[in-house]
Specification:
By secondary structure, the chain is mostly helical. The chain has two domains: 364 residues, Up-down Bundle (Growth Hormone, Chain: A), CATH 1.20.1250; 68 residues, Orthogonal Bundle (Arc Repressor Mutant, subunit A). The chain contains 19 helices and no strands.
Amino acid sequence: MENTEAPAEAPRSLIRSWRQKPWLMLGVGYYFAFSLSVVVNCPSLSIGQEQFYPMLLIRVAFSATVSVSLIVMMFLVRKLDILNSGKWLVAFFVGLTSIGTILLIVSLNYVDSVWLMIASTALIGSGNSVLLLSWGALFQRLSLDRLAGHVTFSCLFAAFACLAFQAFPVQLYFAAIVMLPLASGITLIFCADEQRKADEREVMWKNGLTKILVSCVIMGLTCGLLRVFPVFGHTFSTHSSLVFAIMIAVFLVSLVLITIMGQANPILFLYRFCVPVFIAGYGLLAIGGNVANTLAIACALSGSVMFECLVLLIFPYVAIRAKGSLVHLFGWCAAAQHTGSFAGFVAGELSGINQVTDQAEIALFSLLAVVAFAGLFFFILKELDVVSITEKKAGATVPPAPQPAENRIREVVELYRLSPREAEVLKLLSNGRSLPYIEEELVISHSTARTHVRHIYDKVGVNSRQQLHDLIESADT
């Protein structure tokens, strides 16, 4: 009986969750639209004729700087609380991204300087690394329904935005691209009060990080090689609007199907949906011709974006025996994907792929890519892995320790006017969590955790954790 009722309830659960602040669900879409416009469709940033070398340099420099910046930021997260130091720090790095974009446009159109181009992509890469880690930190706090809404609506919005930008006048197009990271940062700040996930997730995937790392490297390497081929740049320079229109159709189908058929397990549905999209995209390259190439590029990019969303959806479930938080793990995998892209760009440049126009050689790459993805999805990141980490096992969940009533904690928070971050710390303290656990759970440093605890004690007027527990237990409900 339970199995027959679940599918009927799930769509209502999805729709109900997505109705809460729906405009905030487009936040990651701004980031996707920025990446597609600046990195993938970078010829549009140039007013004159497309020059292959600057476009390749942008993609190579972007992947390299994002990889390095992610690694650096992950080491700074705990030392400087890079994700929890307030709105100004997020705004600063978002501003770096916009400034870097302005300098990139200037270097492509007005100042002929390779060094300015590299410096601009370095600014863009450092800003994007903070955006990625910040969204990863937010996403690990969301319920699965809320998270599925974020990624599906964001994909659709990104494709719509990129298509709309094609009709903009040049100066307005430049302004829109510069505003995208600002919109993503602003939305990220407004999402800071999102409630923590209510799902009870039994995480059993001990080798999850290794498999995702390998998958990200393969994905990045293949996509990097594809973008080096002249057919990629030619298709985008002549049929970019059609490419984005096809991507809209793919994402729209994904959104509709996830609401109708994939509501029980959005992660598994997204996995099953992006696999054939990927294989079809790279397989169509073997056919050749404008139509097949346009479909191939659109499906390849759609699959790449959806795979990044799949990683975002999977990460709250991944448990490994490591001291790093989920934000660190997500950062390593994002760095692996960009490192793979960088390796693909460099390999393509050194092997002469950037000059390949022969259809037979393109068909050989198409075949090898399909084989690589078949191996990836059927032997490395298998459907069984996705099922095993996202479906609860009967009797496998350990009963949680007794917890104070939520309404009592809420009353204390409202009565003493605790901040949203202090409310999170209070809830963990009331559950008997230690300071090291709070540091890992909230991705904050030891000094910041102690500061939050001290502020809570001062506001509620207690001197010990036992007095805090007594205060919560005595709260009227």
